[in-house]
Amino acid sequence: MSRTTRLSSSLLRAAAVTGVAALTLTACGSGSGSGSGSKSSGSGSVKVGLITKTDTNPFFVKMKEGAEKAAKENGVQLSTAAGKFDGDNAGQVTAIENMVAAGVKGILITPSDSKAIVPAIQKARAKGVLVIALDTPTEPESAVDALFATDNLKAGQLIGEYAKAVMKGKKAKIAALDLAPGVSVGVQRHNGFLKGFGATDKDVVCAQDTGGDQAKGQTAMENCLQKAPGINVVYTINEPAALGAYTALKAKGREKDVLIVSVDGGCTGTQAVKDGKIAATSQQYPLKMAAEGVKAVVTYAKDGKKASGYTDTGVTLITDKAQDGVTAKDTGYGLENCWG
Amino acid sequence: MTATTSPYAELKAPTTARRLLTAPTTGPLAALLLACAFFSLSTDQFLTGGNFSLIVQQVMVVGTLAIGQTLIILTAGIDLSCGAVMAFGSIVIAKMAAEGSVPPLVAIALGLVVCGGFGLLNGLLVQKIPLPPFIVTLGMLNVAFALTHIYSEEQTVTNLPGPLTALGQTFPLGHTDITYGSLVTIALFLLLAYALSSTGWGRHVYALGNSAEAARLNGIRTSRLTIGIYTVAGLLYGIAALLLISRTGVGDPQAGQTDNLDSITAVVLGGTSLFGGRGSVLGTFIGVLIVGVFRNGLQLMGVASIYQTLITGVLVILAVTVDQLSRKKAR
């Protein structure tokens, strides 16, 4: 009895894999993300890899869209991969290795861990692969051939200057809803904001990490209001955190008299600026980062010319309540150029 | 609990051919071979020595964790803390050696002791109080995770001394480069496979998994055995920590966050029963390779990584379904 069961179970398992394999074929046949899958072998065209922090964050979804569009226009094959969670260095290392094995000409990567990814990038570059960091620099920055990214310090500075103009010299009690310890993007935006505002960390009455998450942003703001009820300016790492802060403030009836500023420029966030929930946000352009990255790999494949140095992909202050002396665009422009 | 489900049933199988067909690893092996065949036909780059060497390098860390996980699951337990314990071990090794001016080999030994200590503690809590393994290791997951972040101060440790990354170095074999770490992992699999199938200790592990009470009545010192199994598993996580450092070249406090689930996935795909007493570490090795082959093969085909997650999920459910159905029929 048990023997025949085991035999049939073996066959079942085998059948399962065949089924899944068929599923895979259908998946890539349907072409989401990689219509090139079916003609992948030996077609001789240039291959480009894109590795993001995760598959699910709208920012990276937009980045992927930009890369796909650029790949199509330039007739190159794009393959994509991502970590399982923000901070999954081992997953990104594996993706780099597999892409090098697949014979890519260049890799565009948004490093989850700026330092930890460096040895894997070095190995890929040693094999002649062009590596460009998107959005987040590596440490050291010279570990990659080039960086296409938002100037995060400037992004923070813009909302800092804006908040300063709104406050008109009134005494500020600042809450900072940050990203996570040691993550460069968060540190740069935070410092940029303080620089633009002309404040120091002493003026920050409450600082909490949110991981850029709406629910955690809400909890953080609730706790900050407990600690320092007089808060009148809220700096947030991104718009989900800002919306969390808005919810917490609204519950206390404080949403009208507290200024919330943010960075990112996602469509939900830009809409929240239009709705008056967030006063202003610094919009960045992931689609452009990816598109320029793909073009750079195409150039390298054609002429052997490697992209180098830092390319600022731009940042724009978006608000409907513009202040004198602070350059900004309205939410109409923001919604046309938003991501997500 | 019937005689037909005991591991000895296979040993009595009359012919070699029949034994091969009915071995619990046959299904997973067939699955692995089919997957390899599929990817070989789909891409030019899959069927090369270099690529197979790469796959083994990529799975060696989770593979080593999965050996420990197999031992624990064979006793009808589970270990949710393995990835976090490994991460803590790797930070201890990296930080001691890179910043604490401790000789590298001493740092490695300390890492092994720390991980073994976590295993011992898990075993003591499971056996002596006793608490369910799920709860003990869930708690330990958080303890080890927090200690990792406290001790590392959230910083990635770089500039590691040479001996720490030695296992990540390669040596040529024919036209292929193999890492020393891959050999360590394969050796560990063979060692534990031998210990489980051909020693008294191995038989006791299976007996314990089938029925702890029956094992105890038969004179097996189940308490000592259980604590020993958790400790051995902890030491294996320590070795995995060293392999992890050697592979990435850094000490990374974020490491290992999903490795507990990945190791359980490998055990299940390898045909080991989550109800204890049935399975093998060789099956787990095949399970680990199935995941590695899919990830690598899909990437070579240019399929987005989310499909790898989809396929792994479907495979796990199928594997457990097969296990359940065969159990029901056997009764």
Automatic annotation (TrEMBL), chain A:
InterPro entries assigned: Peripla_BP_I, SBP_2_dom
Q: Name one GO molecular function term.
A: carbohydrate binding
Sequence ranges assigned to domain Periplasmic binding protein in this UniProt record: 48-306
What keyword terms does UniProt attach to this protein? Signal
Gene3D superfamilies on file: 3.40.50.2300
Q: Which PROSITE patterns match?
A: PROKAR_LIPOPROTEIN
Would you identify the family this protein belongs to, as annotated? Answer: Belongs to the bacterial solute-binding protein 2 family.
Q: What is this protein called?
A: Sugar ABC transporter substrate-binding protein
Species, as recorded? Streptomyces avermitilis
From TrEMBL, chain B:
Recall the GO molecular function terms of this protein's record.
transmembrane transporter activity
Give the primary localization class: membrane
According to the UniProt record, one GO cellular component term is:
plasma membrane
The membrane topology noted for this protein in its Swiss-Prot or TrEMBL record is: Multi-pass membrane protein
Entry's localization field: Cell membrane
Which keywords label this protein?
Cell inner membrane, Cell membrane, Membrane, Transmembrane, Transmembrane helix, Transport
Ranges annotated as spanning the membrane: 20-41, 61-93, 105-125, 131-151, 178-196, 227-245, 266-294, 300-322
Q: Which InterPro entries match?
A: ABC_transp_permease (IPR001851)
What's the protein here called? Answer: ABC transporter permease
